[in-house]
Amino acid sequence: MAETLVGPQISEFLATGQPVVAFKNVSIGFDGRTVLDEVSFSVAHGETRILLGPAGGGKSVLMKLANGLIEPDSGEIRIFGRALGEISQRELFEMRAHIGMVFQESALFDSLNVEDNVAYRLEEEHVDPKEIHERVVEALRFVELEKAIDKFPSELSGGMQRRVSIARAIISRPDLILYDSPTGGLDPITSATIIELIVKQRDVSHTTCLMITNRLQNAFTLATHRYNLQKNCMERIPNGGIDPSTKFLVLHEGRIIFDGTTLELTHTQDPWLREYLE
Amino acid sequence: MKFVSPEAYAKTIVASMQEYSLLCARAVSNIFSRPRYIADVFTQMDSIGVGSLPIVVLTGFFTGCVLALQSATALKEFGAVNMTGRLVTLSMVKELGPVLTGLMVSGRNASGMASELGSMKVSEQIDAMRALGTDPVRKLVTPRLVATVVMLFFLTIISDACGIGGGALVSVTLLKLNAGAFFHTGYMSLWHGDIVEGLTKPLFSGFIIATIGCYYGLKTTGGTRGVGRSTTQAVVASSVIIIFVDFLVTQLMIGIFGS
Fold first, then answer.
1. What percent of chain B has pLDDT over 90?
2. Which of A39, A55, B38, B155 has its CA at a distance of 20 to 30 angstroms from the CA of residue B101?
3. Are B92 and B64 in contact (CB under 8 A)?
4. Burial class (CB in 10 A: 0-12, 13-18, 19+), A70
5. Average pLDDT, chain B
6. In this complex, how many residue pairs, one in chain A and one in chain B, have their CB atoms less than 8 Å apart?
């Protein structure tokens, strides 16, 4: 297993077929309350893993753990094969350059305009300014927000902010994307637009992703739809097909109560899960 | 009101001091390693240094004016009114210039840093920065630390000069003293140790303002109310620590240079 991972070594790791994200008996609590209890799961390369569960079940905490933003009380988290507890802060920051994250409330830098927000990571890497501008325009075109390039976050709607956040996450072509409730607080039409972007990202770039959503409809849209590059739109997979790379994880009161495929989820016999799905 | 046990309270204090010490250590060690955010340092220098210039000039000037008036009144009783220049100069250079500049800059900038970083913390912008592969301490704290230490040094010199100028103006116009005598006695009263003492204090004050302001900003929780609380705590803590450290540095300097 690779023990130093930056740049090209991540590509080598991905070729080995090992899980991109691996949680092993991870527990964490705050103020004496257990939030995650012995959580274990893994996400394979190219897989889209959807995290479901009631609010307050520890989904966002799990997402922050996956990016090393907080540390677990016990257990091991491996990202790209590296145990987060064993690498230095500097290596962690280098590793995060290969992970895109979309926050629940977008978390755009309010003192920077859209272009500077999206370009942030490339500027940190001292990429040529001309190339930065081209890639920003490309990323904004992907989320259909080219015209908002000079605007500030406060001038954008919630849905537009979320799309800028997605553009910021994908601009460096990450090997793992973490979506923390990307449709939370948005109206159904805007949510559908965001889900379409996530499907587009999944089917165009085949990036491994972990996504939290509280809307079952969005989750199942991801599982049953694909992106048609010719028509440039999302469409239902013919004959009731299901995307094989999309899998589910259900968290309830800090524990994983389901880890499997779309079909396994829809055919579950677990009474709580059935009630939750209905 | 919720009461906490003395043990829990003591643990909270120790944990806070540990966090603060770690933040300071990381902020300082970042100066010696790459990447360095030089542009951010200059931006902060402009904001902290140039932005604080008006209040520092006014505070220094009027402090010098008041000092001249007060000291002349007291010195007149001993027939030593000609010593006004000496007293104003020594007081401004050794004590009032550094401390008042530190307190004014603290009120303006420790609060600014705490509220700016606090707002970024509660809106998850700090987490976003970390998620984007940037160390917030390196990007936000270290430039503020360098900028505050450097600019407070020069602001103190300006404050000293304005204070001596204000004292001279009052001495000449209101007390009818000789300007040449004022500056001459002032100049002759200053020793190497006085200058070193007066210019060492802002280095400590600058460090305190930046690290306390950033520390309270980065530990902000509880939304907009939390931002307000952090801002107040930053100003109170930095002001008290500046005066306390001033006492320690004065003791140290007396130990090194004598009285």
1. 90
2. B38
3. yes
4. middle
5. 95
6. 53
Q: Distance between CA atoms of A209 and A245, rounded to whole angstroms?
A: 10
Whose tokens are 């075109």? That residue is A141
Res A7: pLDDT: 60
Do A124 and B132 lie within an 8 Å CB cutoff? yes
Q: What total number of domains does chain B contain? A: 1
Average pLDDT over residues B221-237: 95
Residue B196 to residue B88: CA distance in whole angstroms: 17
| Residue A128: how many other CB atoms lie within 10 Å | 9
Given an 8 Å threshold on Cβ–Cβ distance, is A105 in contact with B123? yes
Query: In chain A, at which residue ranges do the beta strands (DSSP E only) sit?
Result: 21-30, 33-43, 48-52, 74-79, 82-83, 99-102, 176-179, 208-212, 225-228, 233-236, 246-252, 255-261
Please give the distance of CA A44 from its chain centroid, rounded to a whole number: 14
Partner residue opposite A96 with nearest CB, options B35, B124, B132: B132
Its domain, for residue B189, covers: 6-257
Interface test with B, best of A80, A104, A120 (most B CBs within 10 A): A120
Tell me which DSSP letter residue A106 carries.
Answer: B
Name B66's Cβ contacts closer than 8 Å, sequence gap at least 6. Answer: none
Is B127 among the domain residues?
yes
Which has the closest alpha carbon to A116: A167, A178, A177?
A167
pTM assigned to the model: 0.90
Phi/psi for A227 (5° steps) reads -100, 130
Within-domain flag for B1: no
Length of chain B counted residue by residue: 259
In this prediction the ipTM stands at 0.88
| Chain centre to alpha carbon of residue B118 | 21
Joined together, the tokens standing for residue A72 give 């677990």
Provide the pLDDT for residue A2: 39
Distance from CA of A145 to the nearest CA of B (A): 21
* Chain A residues touching B123 at Cβ < 8 A: 105, 107, 110
Beta bridge partners of A150: none
Calpha distance B18→A100 (Å, rounded): 32
- A-chain residues within 8 Å CB-CB of B218? none
- Let me know how long chain A is: 278
Q: State pLDDT tens for residues A29-48.
A: 998 889 999 999 999 999 99
Domains of chain A, each with CATH number or no CATH: 8-98+174-277 (3.40.50.300), 108-173 (no CATH)
> Reduced to 3 states, what is the DSSP secondary structure of residue A178?
strand
Q: Is the dihedral of CA A171, A175, A177, A178 positive or negative?
A: negative
